[in-house]
Amino acid sequence: MRTLGVLFTAAALAATLAGCATRRDVVTIDTRLSEIEMRESEERRRREEFAKAREANEAAIRQMAASLRAQMDELRDELRVLRGRVEEIEYAQKQARGGGAEAGGGSPPREDRLQRLEESAQQLAQRVGRLEEHLKLDSPAAAAKPESRIRPESAAVPTEQELYSRAKQFFDQGNMPQARRSFEELLQRYPRSDNADNAQFWIAETFFREKAYEKAILEYQKVIEKYPKGNKVPAALLKQGHAFLALGDKVNSRLLFEEVIRKHPNTAEARTAAEKLKEIR
Length: 281
What we know:
Elements: H1 2-99, H2 108-135, H3 160-172, H4 176-189, H5 196-209, H6 213-226, H7 233-246, H8 250-263, H9 268-280
Helix pairs in contact: 1-2, 1-6, 3-4, 4-5, 5-6, 6-7, 7-8, 7-9, 8-9
């Protein structure tokens, strides 16, 4: 009787320890995911601050460019006035030379004034030239070129299948940033698409291919949480395990491989997970 009691106690203790181990495994993965999410949030905050600073700098540059263009217009007007006065004096000189040669020739004071005006006009032209060079403008018409930056949107909205095919083509070509943008556009335009879970999975894959493993883990998690009944959940769990393994975290990768086998047996992902477990044990 005493032997049976001891066995029962041992069995109860083993079950308790197994339960504690399972809970501890879950806590370990949740803790690591929380750490990654915190780092991702901090990185997002830094990107937003950088974007705000860049916008402020661009606004300041645009304001300075507008001020320089205004100065340039004023200088052009002043230059035109000076050139007009030079022409008037030259004309008056010709008239004086033609009508009063017998009086002893031209007028030195008027010639000195003409020379000063010509020098002023030349200096103004040089200033205008420097401003144009600074603004990378050849003429006033060139200043209007930045206004044409806005590109009109295409009138035809692509279908979800067109977006998916285009994004997958970018992915197959190895253009991960463009593929990611296209998959994100699909999710934005067609959030209830039948391809939504696949698109989210491929977004995660683009980060995995770029070796941005922590970002990939978070994107795979979206597949698991947003599309729990989708056919990409086993693959997302498996790839999370691969990502943790690439980060050198064998504990969490092992837990995820075991979860694939436990929750999705008789699948290709489960067989792959079993092989990976043999490698890391």
